[in-house]
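Write out structure tokens for Monocarboxylate transporter 1-like.
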Amino acid sequence: MVSIEKKEGANLMGKKYKLVPPDGGWGYLVAISAIISFSTTTAFAGCFGMMYDDFINAVSMSSASVTLLLGIYCISIALAAFFTSALLNIMSKRKLAFVASVIFACGTLGTVIMTTPLMFFLTAGVFQGIGLGIMYNLSCTIVNEYFTEKRVLMMSFVQTMTGLNAMVAPIFVKWSQETFGSKGSLLLIGGLSLNNFVAVMLMQPVQWHMKKVPFEVNEKTELKNLLEVEENKDDRAETPVLKLSDLSDLEGTTTKETLEKYFEIPAKKKSGIRRVIESVIDTSLIKTFLLSCTSLGPALCSTADGIYIVMVPQYLYSMEWNQENVAMALTLYGFGDLATRVLFTVVSKWMYKLGIQNIYIVGVAIAALSRIGMLWSNSTMVILVFFTLMGVAHCSIAVLMPLVVSDAVAPEKFTSAMGILLLLSGSLSMGIGPAIGAIRDITNSYASAFYTLIMLYGLICVLWPIEMIIKSRKQRRRVNKEDYESSQLKKELK
């Protein structure tokens, strides 16, 4: 956060200003750019089986091959999202978004001329995955930068509009295939992906639109300013400098560990390999984020959700459903998704009070129960109802993932954390996807594959609450300790 001091008359303390995100203004156009980006890159994901069914049958691809394609697609997304933070060191967000749009357009338009499974893997897997990985990470980052107080509201609105497009997508694909044929439909969808270039034009840097707002200098700030020790550049290499002005919150956060931050010890020289690694990977996130359920949970659930939506159309066709019923099921899936996004928009003010992670876990539980209900029923109407509930669960898994990340890490680490999460998700897809496809081929049963995916949902529903309880107890003990040490420090300062 940038702060600016201005002296006014005899006010020696000066009037302080800080630059904050606009929480509106051009941010609304940035939200529109995110809607365009999400819609062109993800809205047709649920129509994968419809879009490529003719090609899959023409080249006789097995279930293992289809899930392998999903794995390639996810790992491409993951690697692209992971390296987005490093790529931003050599180019701006808009330039990187433009490059990603070109790559994604090559992938969507390339499916029109594909004739072999290898071309299918390259266009629908690698190119589309790379483009989506970068665009998704950048879009979430930019919305996160422009909004603070309205972040949940705007992210819910963006995802709601994306969900509306996703609900219409199956009907659109069915109409386009009947009107223009399979190839013509893919060409039309590829043309829609070119709208990403409009989204790129709207992605202006947040620094251009920051608001300058005054803030009061309270007693705590005055105390820190009075106690600030002037840095001595000549002695800095040998003598640690005590700077209390770097203290973000003196009261209630002072521990032995935080006090160590005030002593600026000259950094040791790092090897070239270590500097390269740290330029790509934020090592501080490895223990605090990567090895927690806030990372493993969304990664595992999004992987299971992606595998399921790819395989379920073939499952319905094996039950002798016609294309109209399959399209209806996917439409209701989109309707449940959309209705939940609207609900999230309405209750956005209370979502943080309820707990983003708590809501996410409830969504995962609905995902598991709705899939069990679908497998246990033979009635078309009942299955359609469960498809609607699956859409509700999909919304929680997809929409809340960026909010779970932003709630778990500092704003400046958001891009890196999203990259790590998506890399983990892609790595899991490469392993779990082919394994699920192999289970289906060996057992000749979609039910066995789906029960395996349900077990993954159940695992998260059990482990995540346990982790939250453990962290909550540690937090209470830490707060009590910090309160005591803070009171002792204040006595010493007096």
